[in-house]
Amino acid sequence: MINVSNLRKTFGTIEALKGISFNIPQGECYGLLGPNGAGKTTTISIMSTLIKPSEGEVNIAGYDLKKNPLKCKKEIGVVTQEIALYNELSAYDNLLFWGSLYNVPKRELITRIDEMIKLFGLSDRKNDKVKTYSGGMKRRINIASALLHKPKVLFMDEPTVGIDPQSRNLIFEVIEKLHKEGMTIVYTTHYMEEAERLCDRIGIIDNGEIIAQGTLDELRTSYSMKESLVISFTNLSDESYTAIAKDWGDLQRFSDTIHFYSMNIQGDLSKIILKCNEVGLDILHIDIKKINLETIFLSLTGKQLRNI
Amino acid sequence: MIKLVKKDLKLFLRNKQDMMISFLLPIIFITLFSFIFGNMGNSEENDIGGLVHVVAGTSVMMLLFSVAGIGGSLIDEKQEGMLKKLLCSPMPPKHILYGKIVFANIISIAQLSIMFIYAWLVFGLDIMHHLPSLILMIIVIAYACASFGVLLASFAKTRQQVQGFSTIIVLVMSALGGSMIPIFVMPELMQKIAVFTVNYWGIQGIYDIFMRLLPIANITFMSRVFVLIGIGTSLNFIALLMFKKNILKIV
Q1: What is the CA radius of gyration of chain B?
Q2: CB-based contact B119:B51 (threshold 8 Å)
Q3: Interface residue A82 vs chain B (CB under 8 A)
Q4: How far B95 CA lies from chain A's nearest CA (Å)?
């Protein structure tokens, strides 16, 4: 559904994209992760026809973006990071306006607006001015406005920034529903748990390059990342630590705590606990640190996504 | 494009502040200035002259302030992300600017019409005998002023810049162009500079109708009509070029 090939973009002397390539099949939810300035927004902006690439090809729903930008525009829906709504208009009027730009026949548009308002749980507030809405409600309408023309591809640029948990859950449910219905989604976020929950595949972008991509399992396997078991003891001594280290090479001691590293920590859990009992250690606390996107991202870029 | 104009009209009608600035404030100023300057003369002819000057000068000046606000809404749309979303839609980008120009023209025509109807109803300005000329002059003044507002928005980067620039430019143009003081009392040099302002051509056009009593086909009257059309078209052309350069720079 989306083919991006050797995409480059320069702004003056700054090379924002250094020849990135990726393919997204129909019905996939693809997460694009990267710190600020990595090239994530530039990629999304090129794909949503806002800016022209310096080099490279983008093909969306069978149309070349350079040759047929108008046809591409008809096939895509864009959820911007900003809440792009007219505050003085009601949710209904906002949707009527945004939907009309895609030349959806009026009767059909009205039906779809009703469906969207119901889907996003705002039926009782549809005629209220948007300025009276909470941040979460505005976000929901912002997303709804991108879906009225039934796009084949949906670009979502951090659609859940600054909203309440209730709205976030509702948005997740809607995205999952759209995904199940076969919509292709490109999702950028700073929240790792969102990408883990929603995305089939993830592309990690840094300094204008895609440095890794695949499913979470693929990323975990291809970068040989180890999970860790963190155990705190009440009576950890140098002797007992040496005795454990003799049997278990990949570990680290931090005061009264030992970090055990393994590719399959759950499988090794009983062995480790047994060994600790053998050397007479009393366990105070156990914590399993599984490999998640946060760990992979940190390991690949050396940066924590949310703190950037 | 019609959808954009309809949306802007809907927003305008729901915004009490915009309505007040566009319609109520000019009425207040016309009323105030008419009482102060409208009866300064001691003959009937002078009385009409004072009234015509107050109505024409104030209308054009207040219109320039209103259209600057309309142009500023384009900057708001850019800053709040609506422009980005509009550009992602299948609508040609130029239509965003055309929509704003059409909307500014509608509001400008409405504002000028209300000013003259008010002057007719309250101060007895005889608009009925000059209706075709007045309608034509209202349309071309509105066109020139609306273009000024859109041009201002296409140059500025923030709403604050629009407000700052518009206040200075409108006040200077109004002072030079005869909105505040009649041109004929100004020094010769100032009278020459005045021809570079929208106010001058608009006010002179209205003088032609009510004071010089020129018919619609008169060459002097029509020359002012064409100058105003020329100003509007030039400003729109520059605005379109600037729109591509400034406003469309989204990322």
Answers
A1: 18
A2: yes
A3: yes
A4: 11
- d(C-alpha A47, C-alpha A76), whole Å: 9
Q: Which residues contact residue A240 at a Cβ distance below 8 angstroms, ignoring those fewer than 6 apart?
A: A233, A279, A280, A281
Contact call for A73 and B14, based on CB within 8 A: no
pLDDT tens digit string along B117-162? 988 888 888 888 888 999 999 999 999 998 988 888 888 778 888 8
**Alpha helices in chain B, H assignment, sequence order:** 2-13, 16-19, 25-37, 44-79, 82-88, 94-123, 131-155, 159-177, 188-194, 198-210, 219-242
pLDDT tens-digit readout, B204-242: 898 888 888 888 888 888 999 999 999 999 998 998 888
The pair of three-digit structure tokens given for residue A302, joined into one six-digit string: 């050396």
Q: Is the pLDDT of residue A298 over 50?
A: yes
Q: Count interface pairs A-B at CB distance under 8 A.
A: 64
Q: What is the ipTM of this complex?
A: 0.77
- Determine the residue of chain B that is closest to A72 in CA distance: B90
CA–CA dist A273, A278 (Å, integer): 9
Q: What angle do CA A248, A249, A253 make, to 5 degrees?
A: 90
Q: Is the pLDDT of residue B251 over 50?
A: no
Which residues, in sequence order, are CB contacts of B224 under 8 Å at separation 6+? B137, B201, B204, B205, B208
Task: List Cβ neighbours of B9 (8 Å cut-off, separation of 6 or more).
Answer: B103, B106
**Which residue in the block uniquely carries the two structure tokens 């060994």?**
A275
Please provide the size of chain B in residues. 251
Strand residues in chain A grouped as ranges (E): 2-11, 14-24, 29-33, 55-60, 63-64, 76-79, 153-157, 184-188, 201-206, 209-214, 227-233, 251-254, 257-262, 283-289
d(CA A109, CA A115): 10
Cα–Cα distance measured from residue B120 to residue A271, given in angstroms and rounded to the nearest whole number: 98
Cβ-defined contact of B81 to A88 (cutoff 8 Å): no
Distance CA A259, CA A253 (A): 6
More confident residue, A265 or A108: A108
**According to the model, what pLDDT value does residue B143 have?**
92
